[in-house]
Amino acid sequence: MARQSIYWPQPVVFYLYNAYFGGVDTHRDSNVRSVLAPLSDMAQRYGVALICVMHLNKSNMKAIYRVMGSLGFLAAARAAFLVSEDPLDPTGNRRLLICAKLNVAEKPASLAFATKDEKVVFEDKSVNITADEVLGGRSNIEAPERDRAVEWLKQLLSGVDSMPSKEIFKLAEENMFNERMLARARKELGIKCFPDFDEEGNKSWYWRLPGPDGDKPKLPTLSEMYARLNKMKKNMTLSKISTQ
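and the corresponding C-alpha cells:
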C-alpha cells in the first residue's frame, strides 16, 4: 500500500468576516452564498484554508444560529469552533474551545486553555461540555450535575429513616458534589432537616426524604429530654466553677 502524504494548506485569516462584504446584505442567505461560492473556489484553486472569525449575536437560540448575519456563513464552513469564557471559572481567565460543526470527520472533544506569561496553555484533559451548554449560561452547565446530585441524594436517603447531615456532607464531598449543588438537590427533593439529640443531650441535625409521616420533625423521647436537662445543669455548674 502506497504511503500517502499529508498536505497542510496555508491559512488565510479573515477577522470579522462579514465586514469584508461591503454593501452586501449579510442577513440574506442568497446574497451571502453568492459571495462565498467564488471565494471557496479561489481557496481550492490556490490550496489555502480560509479561517473566518466572527462574533455572535445575543439571542437565546442554539449555538449554530448565534452567528451574526445569515446562516449561510456557517452552512458554507466545513468546520466551526466556538471560543468562549468558562462561565464556571471564578478567575475569568479560562477559555473553552468547542467544536460546533464538523462535516468531514467526527467531532473532537472540547478543550480548555488559558493565557500564562503571554502564552496560550492548553489543559491536558478534555472538557465534557457542548457549545449549547456554554452559550446557555451557568444554569445549563450545572443542570446535568444537579440532576446527578438529586439522584445520588435520593438513593442515599431512600433506604434509611434519616441520616446525620455531617455524614451526608462528607459522602457528598467524596462524590465530588459541593455544598451549593447539595443544597439545590435537597430543595428539589423537598428533604426535611430536623434536630435530634443523643443520650447525653448533644444536638445533631438530620435529613430525611418527605413522606406520609416524614413532614413533622421527630420529637425527643422523655429519657432524651432528661439527659439533655442534666447536661445543661452540668454545663452551668462547670461554668460557675470556672468563673470563681
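(Above: one complete record from the training split.) Strands lie at 10-15, 48-53, 79-85, 95-102, 111-116, 119-122, 163-164, 192-197, 203-208.
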